[in-house]
């Protein structure tokens, strides 16, 4: 039975609005949580209740929910030019400025920037570019993509195929053929009994190589990974993982694609997640933090060999047959440029490191007083706290996801927005969070945990 009043906004939402990543029947009973206003790291619902948004929305609003400079940048950009595109040699001026800025920040030498509007489009664009790269070199059989279990790369068909999460495949008959998944480098659950981290890493690299050899190295175009898996559970790979994996990939001529959609722009305590984990990609996709999600804009940075392959592929005067209407939109570009200026002015990397250490120390101290915290993991300002029935054996709660959902509800009661990933609680607050904000987050987290833990006893 629904408890939603007739003719209310909630009822209209249930009737007229299909939600992403939401159970339809449960939504029809519960109705929406309607957010109406933001102030720094906080948001307010339609009843006026205030929440600390410890997920930065969807791992994205790095500058919080009310940055006036971004609003002004948007207004000024709209005053100048409401729209222009990047097809057929044309471009808004501000889009050139953003491309130059991204290339200056790029760890890939002599990069170029390509713009799109979502993370999914950016990851899919990298796949097309990888196909071009190999085709231009005469290796037209190289079409397969290796992704990883528990990876997340978006919701369009190829991006979803690259996800390593069953919920992204189940309803749709995905992944598409040719999209493979190798093991997730989860240091908490991955190692076999008695296996130390170097041997775990060696096993992951060997499993990847075995897959490549079985499929045929000349059929594989690229490997894609988030430096630190976000939606898959905030998995920080063990020391040496990416160097070991990349050695295998390079040996077989396979391109390395970094999905920096969450990890980019300071989130992990370096400008790029790749730098945090020792990954050296040929291309990287970015979105979310590029504009603090104040505009749907994403980008791919591509290295010189890919650029040359694209020129070679079209050497007889054909065009690069790819592009989105809103690629390089002038308003998105202006907002992204202003976002990058703010990151520079706030010296985002040291700030994230300092706040991240404060958050980590606080979470560890909470974990030390709890009987149900099995693992506190993360980097920069991106963490997961895994709740388990028995920290000694790492045995989880049954059924998986129940206590995570309970924690989510209790956190909401306490004015804290987190994201349960099964029974791991994700925290990814806006990067502007200060010491007071971290302490408030910890206090609300602790309160929620104590309640849930008492019930679980
Ligand atoms: N890649 C990663 C790592 C993500 O977390 C996401 C979204 O959460 C995407 C890609 C897809 O981005 P979008 O939802 O903008 O298409």
UniProtKB/TrEMBL annotation:
Q: What are the UniProt keywords, alphabetically?
A: Aminotransferase, Pyridoxal phosphate, Transferase
Lineage here is: Bacteria, Pseudomonadati, Pseudomonadota, Alphaproteobacteria, Acetobacterales
Where on the tree of life does the source sit, at the highest rank?
A: Bacteria
Similarity field? Belongs to the class-III pyridoxal-phosphate-dependent aminotransferase family.
- GO CC terms for this protein? cytosol
- Identify a single GO molecular function assigned to this protein: transaminase activity
InterPro entries in alphabetical order: Aminotrans_3 (IPR005814), Aminotrans_3_PPA_site (IPR049704), PyrdxlP-dep_Trfase (IPR015424), PyrdxlP-dep_Trfase_major (IPR015421), PyrdxlP-dep_Trfase_small (IPR015422)
Question: By what name is this protein known?
Answer: Aminotransferase class III-fold pyridoxal phosphate-dependent enzyme
Q: Which Gene3D superfamilies match?
A: Aspartate Aminotransferase, domain 1 (3.90.1150.10), Type I PLP-dependent aspartate aminotransferase-like (Major domain) (3.40.640.10)
Question: So which cofactors does this thing need?
Answer: pyridoxal 5'-phosphate
Record-linked SUPFAM superfamilies: PLP-dependent transferases
Instruction: Please report the organism this UniProt entry assigns to the protein.
Output: Teichococcus oryzae
